[in-house]
User: Which sequence fits this backbone?
């Protein structure tokens, strides 16, 4: 059983390594789209429609920055504004099928860019990666569910 200190170090290394891996893959693809674009589409995919302020908070950008991102994504038809059923004066932002397709294509580009670096992994190493993704994914889903429950109880 890992100590809290060891687990803390491993989790810190995981976050840093994951960011480095994502940046490397993005550079290799040559795609010039802003990382904020992909982050915004990803947030909308996992969280569903959100108000502008909520979307900015999830994406960790200011509201003015998110306003610009949303304007550009509306122009590309990757997202759309929909009426907020709780407040007729407000709008929510939702991903469109075209945006979901663009995000899926981007994720495939990232994976294909990294494939040569990982092509020589043994079956055991691939299984370890698969298991790590499952573990991390389950923890993130738990956090997303807890956050959604907290948002629901605060309204």
Assistant:
């Amino acid at each position: 059983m890992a100590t809290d200190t060891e687990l803390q170090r491993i989790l810190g290394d995981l976050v840093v390594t994951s960011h480095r891996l994502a940046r490397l893959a993005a550079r290799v693809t040559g795609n010039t789209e802003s990382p904020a674009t992909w982050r915004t589409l990803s947030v909308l995919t996992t969280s569903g429609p959100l108000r502008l302020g909520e979307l900015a908070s999830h994406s960790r950008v200011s509201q003015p920055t998110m306003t610009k991102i949303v304007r550009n994504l509306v122009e590309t038809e990757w997202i759309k504004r929909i009426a907020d059923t709780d407040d007729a004066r407000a709008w929510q932002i939702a991903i469109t099928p075209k945006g979901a397709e663009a995000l899926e294509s981007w994720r495939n580009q990232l994976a294909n860019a990294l494939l040569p670096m990982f092509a020589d992994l043994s079956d055991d190493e691939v299984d370890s990666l698969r298991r790590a993704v499952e573990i991390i994914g389950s923890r993130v889903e738990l956090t997303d569910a807890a956050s959604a429950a907290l948002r629901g109880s605060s309204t």
Q: What stands out?
A: The chain has six helices and two strands. Strands lie at 79-83, 91-95.
